[in-house]
Amino acid sequence: MAKQIAIRDAFGAALKKLGEVNERVVALEADVGNSSKSILFGQAFPDRYFNVGIAELNMTSMAAGLALSGMIPYVNTFATFLTSRALDPVISLIAYDHLDVKLCGTYSGLSDSFDGASHHSICDLSAVRSLPGMTVISVCDAVETEKAVFAAAELSGPVYLRLSRAPAPVIYPENMDFQVGKGIILREGSDIAILATGYMVHKALEAAKMLEKKGISARVADIHTISPIDRDLLIDCAKTCGKIITVEEHSISGGLGSAVCEVLSETCPVPVKRLGLTEYSESGDYEEILEKAGLSGACIAEKAEKLIKGN
Amino acid sequence: MPLTKERREALEELCLSLRKDLVTILHRIQTGHPGGSLSATEIITTLYQEKMYLPAPDDPDRDRFVLSKGHAVPMLYLNLAEKGFIPKEELLTLRQAGSRLQGHPCAHKTPGIDVSAGPLGLGLSAGLGMALAGRLQKRNHTVYVLLGDGELQEGGCWEAAMAAAKFNPGNLIAIVDHNGVQLDGTNDEIMPVGDLAAKFRSFGWETLSCDGHDVSAFSDAVDQAKQIHDKPAVIIAETVKGKGISFMEGKNTWHGKPISDVDYQAALNELGGDANG
């Protein structure tokens, strides 16, 4: 079994590493530094770390000011708070002026499982994906996390980086080719394409293995960049496989599934089944509530089979 | 340094002239916010034409200005034109499609606008971020943030006030345009803001106050505020909404009302100009 590293730990380590090589990088935190792991940056660079307390709106507006004066702020809090309480300056300052602010939404999806629906994040992608010029990245393992943290600093303009609390298998080699806007085919297949993002990538891989035993060849792709989405890859999946399932730890409205449908409806319409949340989840063990939401490997395999059979 | 008599008179004359230009532009385009622009006239003009270090709109060492009460932006555009950052002919394009002069401040369209604004309550935070960046970059600039009093009803302002006291960049000066009136009525009618100086003091700020229409008094208050480094400083500038045009003064209805031909002529008569001027 692959080594497991929590995305948040990989993020904290990567941010610190970035701070070592880029003096323009600063980090802001709203009193969850021990959870987001931004604390690692703070301990290394206390002068460039601003813990604003429980004040997400102020934090995000401060980041806008820092960016307007040439710094590259990484803004940290839970994904759900970053895209609700702090959304105003994201819309009116950061996206509007295309500022170099990197919004790091941790504990996304259901990954803060026991804290319950108030701390889950199932509409963050829809909130940021509609903003002009916003790059939206959602990572699935420790290596990809570090690549994304570094890539965000190089990108001009705002980035939303979707992070997770969950320990995740490390599936990428250190030298992986991470390119913003380019999805990665993890497994070839021709009967159906499973397009997944974040932690769901691992579930999609599990599902593909189950389908293989039933003689179904499933392609699996890691769509780590939700916006701008990899149109060429989506069209290729539609042409090659003819049927598509999207899997995300997010509402089926406004996230990956919607983005895929938007592209394919205009270019290469094929049946698409969107898997994700249709209602608020609840407190509980992470894997258990994912399964209840239909987001286990077995659930995905079942839906894939149904789609292939045309019902 | 106190203003000399000459500078004081020159600034007073300029403020009068900018008021005339303001009503002329807003009358012509039949949109925009006269009330808050008129209350902030001396504040913005004294900062831009006297106090701020502004060799060029993109000089990294320049002083910064955040118009957090973004609806007063016509008075800011007039001052940017006065500085030569935008051509005066462009002022009449305000709020028109294709113009660089948006209805609210837009940092990426207009040379000399340091921070975008519109939704109230964000500017003090943004100004704090700029001030902290200045400290990190070892620059010597001052960041001024102009807030409305109604704006201080936004809770985010107080998040920023707390944070400014904690991080104390040493180069942040807030100014409250305390005209007592907001869109729907007076502050007291809509949502009393209480003793603003006491509020800021309790958040760890040094507070100063002055007559916001007296260019010398305001200039002195800025000088005093610049001497305070152990905490952030706020100047509560006592002002009158619609200042200078009697029928607009203190009237919430003039927050954002188009100026009719009759009112325009009356305004010019009071300001000592003529409709052709």
Structure write-up:
The complex is a heterodimer of chains A (311) and B (277). With 311 residues, chain A is α/β, with parallel strands linked by helices. Helix content of chain A is 41%, strand content 21%. Chain A has helices at residues 7-21, 33-36, 39-44, 56-68, 79-82, 87-95, 124-129, 142-154, 200-213, 231-241, 256-267, 286-292, 297-309; strands at 4-6, 25-29, 49-51, 72-78, 102-106, 135-138, 159-162, 167-169, 184-187, 192-196, 218-222, 225-227, 244-251, 272-277. In chain A, β6, α8 and β7 (159-162) form a beta-alpha-beta unit. In chain A, α4 (56-68) runs parallel beside α6 (87-95), α9 (200-213) crosses α13 (297-309) and α10 (231-241) packs across α11 (256-267). Chain A is globular, with a radius of gyration of 19 Å. The mean pLDDT of chain A is 97. Chain B is an alpha/beta fold. Chain B has one domain: Thiamin diphosphate (ThDP)-binding fold, Pyr/PP domains (Rossmann fold). Helix content of chain B is 41%, strand content 12%. Chain B has ten helices and seven strands. Chain B has helices at residues 5-29, 34-39, 41-51, 73-83, 123-136, 155-167, 187-190, 196-202, 215-226, 261-271, and strands at residues 64-67, 143-148, 172-178, 181-182, 185-186, 206-211, 233-238. In chain B, the strands form two sheets. In chain B, strands 1-2-3-7-6 form a five-stranded parallel sheet, sandwiched between helices. The longest helix of chain B has 25 residues, at 5-29. Chain B starts with a helix and ends in a 6-residue tail after the last helix. Chains A and B meet through α4 and α6 of A and α5 and α6 of B.
Quick recap:
The complex is a heterodimer of chains A (311) and B (277). Chain A is built from 13 helices and 14 strands.
Number of strands of chain A: 14
Task: Choose one word for the global shape of chain A.
Answer: globular
**Radius of gyration of chain B, in angstroms, nearest whole number:** 18 Å
Termini of chain A, distance in Å? 34 Å
Strand arrangement across the biggest beta sheet of chain B = 1-2-3-7-6
Task: Compute the separation of the termini of chain B in Å.
Answer: 35 Å
Largest sheet of chain A: 7 strands, mixed
- Total count of helical runs of at least 4 residues of chain B: 10
Strand order of the largest sheet of chain A: 3-2-4-5-7-6-12
The CATH topology of the largest domain in chain A is what?
Answer: Rossmann fold
Strand-residue fraction of chain A?
Answer: 15-25%
What percentage of amino acids of chain B are in beta strands?
5-15%
- Oligomeric state, counting identical vs distinct chains: heterodimer
Helix content of chain A: 40-55%
Low-confidence blocks of residues of chain A: none
Query: In the CATH scheme, what's the topology name of chain B?
Result: Rossmann fold
**Could you say which structural class the secondary elements and strand pairing of chain B correspond to?**
alpha/beta
**Secondary-structure content class of chain A:** alpha/beta
**Cα-based radius of gyration of chain A, to the nearest Å:** 19 Å
**Shape by Cα distribution of chain B:** globular
Mean pLDDT of chain B: 96
